[in-house]
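Translate structure to sequence.
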């Protein structure tokens, strides 16, 4: 899992610049496009991630501050699926998520670039963020309860979240939780995290995804942002 290839030399990204710097930025990549093959990621013409499959993600990769030309290619080929310019600021963490359908269906293939907040939660609390990256799913409501607690009478913590939207960070006490994603305006569960065990300092991003090829049954990727 989470296979990646680090560039070791300065020339991999910018001539004469060290790859990791304390004033740099960090980026991780998530493959959430259900009909796209495994991909290679090129930065300024140099491969930095290889053979990243659907529903997998890289670790944070350290980069000097700057604006980068990023190409997403079908693994082992020169077929470019997406090309984009990515500006990175000093001291920032980012999550880049490949979303949508690569095969021509709507919504089409795109990249969401989220700015992450990995500052420590307050004492006794955790931070959780939700991103809707399942192109086959409608807008959703998100419920967070104790494990297997009935949703009867419960109000969602997030409402009517559309595709390609991400919430802010929810700060909740350390405890045992269950996150359930329902079709907006209903309690029809599309995604169930089951039991989530939490501990001090934890930060997580929950990403909703299609099944391979697209559509239901839907699932989630739980990204370990911190701790």
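Result:
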């Amino acid at each position: 899992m989470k296979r990646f290839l680090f560039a070791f030399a300065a020339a991999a990204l910018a001539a004469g610049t060290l790859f990791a710097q304390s004033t740099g930025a960090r980026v991780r990549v998530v493959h959430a496009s259900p009909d796209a093959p495994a991909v290679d990621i090129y930065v300024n013409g140099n491969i930095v991630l290889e053979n990243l499959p659907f529903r997998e993600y890289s670790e944070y990769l350290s980069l000097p501050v700057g604006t980068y030309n990023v190409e997403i290619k079908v693994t082992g080929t020169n077929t470019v699926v997406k090309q984009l310019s990515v500006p990175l600021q000093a001291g920032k963490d980012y999550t880049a998520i490949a979303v949508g359908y690569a095969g021509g269906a709507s919504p089409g293939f795109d990249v969401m670039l989220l700015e992450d907040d990995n500052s420590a939660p307050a004492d006794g609390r955790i931070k959780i963020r939700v991103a809707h990256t399942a192109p086959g799913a409608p807008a959703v409501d998100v419920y967070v309860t104790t494990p297997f607690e009935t949703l009867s009478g419960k109000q969602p913590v997030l409402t009517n979240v559309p595709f390609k939207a991400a919430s802010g960070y929810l700060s909740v006490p350390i405890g045992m939780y269950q996150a359930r994603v329902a079709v907006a305006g209903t309690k029809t569960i599309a995604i169930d995290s089951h039991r989530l065990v939490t501990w001090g300092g934890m930060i997580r991003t929950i990403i909703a995804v299609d099944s391979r090829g697209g559509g239901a049954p839907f699932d989630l990727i739980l990204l370990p942002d911190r701790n």
